[in-house]
Amino acid sequence: MLNKIVYPIFIFMFIWLTAGSVNAAAPIKIGALFAVTGPASFLGEPERNTAQMVVDEINKAGGVKGRMLQLVVYDTQGDATKAVQAATRLIKEDKVAAIIGPSTTGDTMAVIPIVEKAQIPLISCAAGIKITEPAKKWVFKTAQNDSLAVARIYENLKRRNISRVAILTVSDSFGSSGREQLKAQAAKFGIKIVSDDTYGPKDTDMTSQLTKIRGSQAQAMICWGTNPGPAVIARNAKQLGLKFPIYMSHGVSSRKFIDLAGDAAEGIILPSGRVLVADRLPNSDHQKKSLLSFVKDYQKHFKAEGDHFGGHAWDAVMLLKGAIERGGDSPAAIRNQLEKNRNFAGIGGVFTYAPQDHAGLNKDAFVLVEVKQKDWVLVK
């Protein structure tokens, strides 16, 4: 009789304890939307690589509060429709606790309504200011705002006593956002835009736009876009013999731009996160330790340079790790802890979020770099 009572109790306890241990070991699912292939793959591939690298390192060290992270990655191909479909799948089928990415401003703007409705935190890796201005409850970002990049360029122009500029921007979400900021901030820095033209994301020759700019009174040109267009513009400018200074946006802040532009990249200046010049930073720099660690790890894993774009994914994963450690793994807890994040020294800058600031960076997140002898140097 005793056995008949004890045995079922034993079985019940075994099932309860086993279920509890399985539940405790269940991974925390993190979704990721990256343009791994397609025109924006120079953004999405290093982001995907970096995110997986960091997740693997976290898991190797014991996970987060004893639980492993599981990264669920979908390739948006830089297509807003595919980004929306993938975001929906991550939320409804994969049941992720948070999402990092997408890689581009256009993809990000398309998925914002999805995550806001589902109440799932999103940490975008794209730069457009409209992603977080005005602030959206569930949306954060790690890429530095284009408004900060414009300010860095204009400060340098002002120091060089250059007041007349031409702007040439790509006709997509990133280019449109940059163009708005270039026009909005010009007067503040005493800048006059004497030529304002655009080019298409798939255009392969911009000679006509550059010829028009050559005929203007421009003392410098600012090109706003992502590869490969800016590299084409650099080569066309060299072919036309344009002599004025050329500035690019942070959208080409990687070795890929130098590879694409070749000798035409020489002398071009652009705002970038510090990762491109990590080894040249003073030891007092708050980011240097994280930067050098990231560069070393990426080189070890992928035999390539860790860049500005992979850094956005590094920051996103590490910010999520910190939020989960402090508050738990529910979407609401992650969101709340992200908003309380203070002084996190990442790859893109030192992040401090607030209820009305889900970008978390100031213009010090950027340095100006120049291409010299096919390498990056700091602009003093």
From TrEMBL:
InterPro entries: BCAA_transport (IPR051010), Leu-bd (IPR028081), Leu_Ile_Val-bd (IPR000709), Peripla_BP_I (IPR028082). One of its GO terms (biological process) is amino acid transport. Keywords: Amino-acid transport, Signal, Transport. SUPFAM superfamilies: Periplasmic binding protein-like I. Residues 27-372 form the Leucine-binding protein domain. It comes from the Bacteria. CDD domains: PBP1_ABC_RPA1789-like (cd06333). The keyword Glycoprotein does not apply. The keyword Transport applies. It holds the Pfam family Peripla_BP_6. PANTHER family: BLR7848 PROTEIN, LEUCINE-SPECIFIC-BINDING PROTEIN. Belongs to the leucine-binding protein family. This is Amino acid/amide ABC transporter substrate-binding protein, HAAT family. It comes from Geotalea uraniireducens (strain Rf4) (Geobacter uraniireducens).
